[in-house]
Each structure stands twice: as structure tokens, then as C-alpha cells.
Design goal:
EC 2.7.7.65; globular; diguanylate cyclase; Nucleotide_cyclase; 4-stranded antiparallel β-sheet; 49% helix; Alpha-Beta Plaits; alpha+beta; transferase; 131 residues
Length: 131
């Protein structure tokens, strides 16, 4: 007996789902530190980290990467879902009031993680598509 169409749908979903790497960068962060001081800059980092922790799934891994960059490794999902989720998050940050800072923006790059990719290739791919 062959598998049901439901089993086939699950297999197709599983094949379409993959892990993703996002790199988020606070734009003009040096200016924030220079204009308002490092304590304000630290407050911005803290608020952003809290927003990420509450917005993304608890199973998604969030790391600080450099002074004003963060990396997120997402659990498997499809390309449309992760693209929509990142767009929603970027809009959330645009709408967020940060201490002393008006209109803070972030840029984000997103890359698919394949089990056959070299880690540096995934990282470079995410960096190259930041917008």
C-alpha cells in the first residue's frame, strides 16, 4: 500500500523547510554612541535583544555578533514564512521607541542553511544580502 496524499504533503513541506541564518545590523550605531554616549548605546542593544527574544520563537538561536550586529539561526521553515517574519520584525523595530534615539533602523541579511554549505559561505551570503 502506498502512502496517503497527506503523507506526501508532509514530505513536500519538510523538503521545502530549511534552516536560515539572519544577520541584523543597527544602522549608524557609532553615531548613537558618539552622540548620546555608550550607556545609551547599551540601552539600544538591550531593547533590541529583548524585542528579538519576544518576537522570534524560543527555539531560534540569537547571538550578538560584533558591536552592533546580531545573528539568528532559525528553526526550519519555508522561504516565504521567514521572509515575512523578518519584514514584520524590521517594521516592529521601526515602530519601537528606543532610549534617546529617534527612528532607529536595522538592516538584515538572510541566507538559507544547507547541510552541504560551508559555514563561511552561509555567513557571506547573509552579509551580502543585507538591506
Amino acid at each position: 500500500m502506498h502512502g496517503s496524499s497527506r503523507d506526501k504533503d508532509k514530505r513536500q513541506q519538510k523538503q521545502a523547510s530549511t534552516s536560515w541564518l539572519a544577520i541584523l545590523d543597527i544602522e549608524h550605531f557609532k553615531n548613537i554612541n558618539d552622540q548620546y554616549g555608550h550607556i545609551c548605546g547599551d540601552g539600544v542593544l538591550l531593547v533590541l535583544a529583548q524585542k528579538m527574544r519576544h518576537f522570534f520563537r524560543s527555539t531560534d538561536l540569537i547571538f550578538r555578533f560584533g558591536g552592533e550586529e546580531f545573528m539568528i539561526v532559525f528553526e526550519p521553515t519555508d522561504a516565504d514564512s521567514i521572509s515575512n517574519k523578518m519584514a514584520e520584525f524590521i517594521q516592529l523595530i521601526r515602530d519601537t521607541s528606543f532610549p534617546f534615539v529617534e527612528n532607529m533602523t536595522i538592516s538584515a541579511g538572510l541566507a538559507r542553511i544547507s547541510p552541504y554549505d560551508f559555514q563561511i559561505a552561509v555567513l557571506e551570503s547573509a552579509l551580502l544580502c543585507k538591506k
